[in-house]
Write a structure and sequence with these properties.
13% of the residues lie in helices and 37% in strands. The protein is mainly beta. It has one domain (2-29, 53-199). The strands form 4 sheets. A 5-stranded antiparallel sheet has the order 1-12-9-10-13, with no helix packed on it. Strands 4-5-8-11 form a 4-stranded antiparallel sheet. The protein has a two-stranded antiparallel sheet with strand order 2-3. Strand 6 and strand 7 (102-103) form a beta hairpin. The protein starts with a helix and ends in a 5-residue tail after the last strand.
Length: 204
């Protein structure tokens, strides 16, 4: 399933001028230093404190991510997506959804993007365009639909993986491109998480 999913993970990374938005384009909380302050007394003499070296802080900015202001984003590789799914019950459940008895990303064209923000986000908004050739005989590229996906809040430097699911048959070999990600700091009344795919009407 993952191999077939990867075919549609190609996306164009564009950078938006908005400091809180990334046309894709996007970590873990720093660990605290600590010391062993226990002192062992021997014949009324105190031994010196044993000081442990602090654990290294997680790398920031995250490797391979593109950035615009506080926002960081990256299209995950197959290996990265598999690793993330194995440690994320939410992502695992999303990929396991069935449509007509088939896993959702074996039924529809899908994509994914990894996001992070230096200051954290109240919610994320990801927009993308589903593109492909006009027909089997006409190779002219065109947009078949647009996808708007809303994702939950993230803490500062927390990386989240957002799965992008269209409603177009995967057999058509369309791909999600022009991905833009916006980190919101305000409240919203919209349903989160949620995803809306809107087909583009064909006009002569």
């Amino acid at each position: 399933m993952i191999k077939r999913l990867l075919v549609v993970f190609l996306a164009t990374l564009l950078i938006s001028p908005n400091a809180n938005a990334l046309s894709v384009s996007p970590s873990p909380a720093p660990q605290e230093m600590f010391k062993d302050k226990n002192i062992t007394l021997v014949k009324l003499s105190a031994k010196k404190k044993n000081t442990l070296s602090p654990s290294p802080s997680p790398k920031w900015p995250p490797l391979g991510f593109k950035s615009n202001g506080e926002v960081y984003a990256k299209i995950p590789t197959a290996k990265e997506l598999v690793g993330t799914a194995s440690n994320s019950p939410v992502l695992t459940r999303q990929l396991a959804q069935l449509v007509d008895g088939v896993r959702i990303c074996e039924k529809y064209s899908c994509g994914a993007v990894q996001l992070a923000s230096l200051n954290g986000c109240t919610w994320w908004e990801v927009n993308a365009k589903l593109q492909g050739t006009t027909s089997a005989t006409d190779k002219t590229p065109r947009i078949f639909g647009t996808l708007r996906t809303l994702a939950r809040a993230t803490a500062p430097r927390q990386i989240t993986t957002v799965l992008l699911i269209s409603k177009e048959d995967i057999a058509l070999q369309h791909v999600l491109k022009g991905i833009t990600a916006t980190c919101h700091h305000d409240a919203t009344n919209e349903k989160i998480p949620s995803s809306i795919y809107t087909p583009v009407e064909i006009t002569d």
